[in-house]
Amino acid sequence: MIRPCRPEESEEILSIINDAAAQAYRGVIPPDRWHDPYMSVSDFNRAKTENIRFWGYEEKGILLGVMGIQEVQDVTLIRHAYVRTANRSQGIGGKLLEHLKTLTDRPVLIGTWASASWAVRFYQKHGYELVSEEAKNILLKKYWEIPERQVETSCVLVDEKGRALLRE
Question: Residue 38: which domain range?
């Protein structure tokens, strides 16, 4: 079942994010961007103040995956998409992504680490397209509040409406 995450689940959401990110990103993303825990409590609280709404995939009362959605200006961003390490490759991320897509009529943009090739392939499998380096830099600086080093080491994928946005 896909549902909005509840405020009292903050610790569980962080646990999923940190479990998934620690396994996936260690040794893959630039060492100066990786830290343990991957997302601190203060970073998570900041995400909530930035109006990132977390949705979860629950099975038998257990939260197995989470994904955030954030409306920024004229687009929707998918943020912090993670599935528990033990539950990967079961279609959970795809179900969350498809559900969140139904919550907006705006262009959808997704930022991820450029070196996380499996994440890029996942989003491409679901119809998202990588943008050029030039477009990536413009989009990351316009819609995200991230450090310059993260801009340098990230990529952006867009849905069909996002591709139209780039042509404007």
Answer: 2-167
Burial of 102 from C-beta contacts in 10 A (0-12 / 13-18 / 19+): exposed
CATH no. for residue 87? 3.40.630.30
* Per-residue confidence (pLDDT) for residue 32, from 0 to 100: 76
Q: Cβ of 166: how many Cβ atoms within 10 Å?
A: 15
Q: What is the mean pLDDT of residues 84-99?
A: 92
pTM of the model: 0.89
Q: Give residue 123's pLDDT.
A: 96
φ, ψ for residue 32 (rounded to 5)? -75, -10
DSSP H or E segment with residue 37: none
Per the structure, the count of domains in the chain is: 1
CB 104 within 8 A of CB 38: no
CB 75 within 8 A of CB 143: yes
- Assess whether pLDDT exceeds 80 at residue 90: yes
Average pLDDT over residues 134-153: 88
**Residue-level pLDDT at 106:** 96
R_g over Cα of the chain = 15
> Given CA atoms 48, 138, 147, 28 in this order, what sign does their dihedral have?
positive
Report the relative pairing of strands 75-83 and 108-113 from DSSP bridges: parallel
